[in-house]
Amino acid sequence: METANQTVTEFSGAGQTLAPLCTSRCCGLLNRTLAVMFMVSLAFAIVVGNVVTLTVFMQTRHSRTPQGYLKVSLAIADMMVGVLVVPFSVYTEIFLMASSTPPLWYQGISTASLEDGSGSWQPCMLIGPVFAGCTFVSITTIFLMTVERSVAILRPLHKDTLVTRHRTLFLILLSWAGSFLLAISPLMLSNSFTLEYNECSRMCNYAPLLVRNQLPPDANILLLFPAFDFSLLGGTLAVNILSFTSIRRYSRKRKLLSEGSLGIDAGAGGCPIRPSFSDIKAAKTIGILTFAFTASFSPIAVFVLGNVVGYTWCNFSFFAFWILTGNSCCNVIIYSVRDHRFRKGLTLLFQRNRSQPHSEKS
Q1: 359 within some domain
Q2: Which domain does 70 fall in, by range?
């Protein structure tokens, strides 16, 4: 493996990608074994958690709300990461441990195989956009969930009129189409990029092709990714602040009313319509989701910025990409802890599963 990696690194002509040496410490047998164990555990947690979310939605009617459809969109995007992206990394790592020759989609090898005509398609051309697209779907869905909760808090009487199932489904389809279109935009807008399995991050990543050991002039196209995510995260943060400000105002008035500090007329006229407790708690849950996604995406945004200016950051790239991947199972954990509707649906689901065997016996 060290010989193969050194051969890959020696590619320095036009159209080659930057491939740092993979030392025995980071790419040794023990390190790869631990990485595979971590990937398998993560994939299992992602798939099981999101399958439970989808099952609760399908089996309980009270979950079929606009917010429920948004949760399903987020669960499908997360599950695609656990079904396609992580297992492919597991397969590649096992392939590297079992074989002395890197696969055709490995860093540096993929570009060389395309240039000499030995390969016409690489699996990373699918896995890479799927991971990027699912990431964009996640942040777009969190933004839509935030807007939906803000309408329920700021305009509770107009919630059912403004937020309908048809509009929600249309926005979900639009978010999926736009997210995956953005995911393949570097390949559509430029010929200076390829997708290959990166030996540092252990994932299929976008890689700028070197021209005489120099980055292409349009390498900053990759900045579209963090720009899009942080723009939506900024909008999500602004809507959350607006919602939480309203919640605080309602809570303060409720406290004053309970203490008798406000008169009856002031209470009736000053706070005629209040958001429900479930709407307030759902807004706080979405705020936690936003914070979790921001924390998981920030390292990879720093890595992309460094990559554009020519830094490799091998060890840091592994943690950055896999922290973002781990966010795919955090959403389910946040739901189970915070969302009472999800807990209620899960309870009803288990009660139904328990009652069915008893009815069959009787």
Answers
A1: no
A2: 2-351
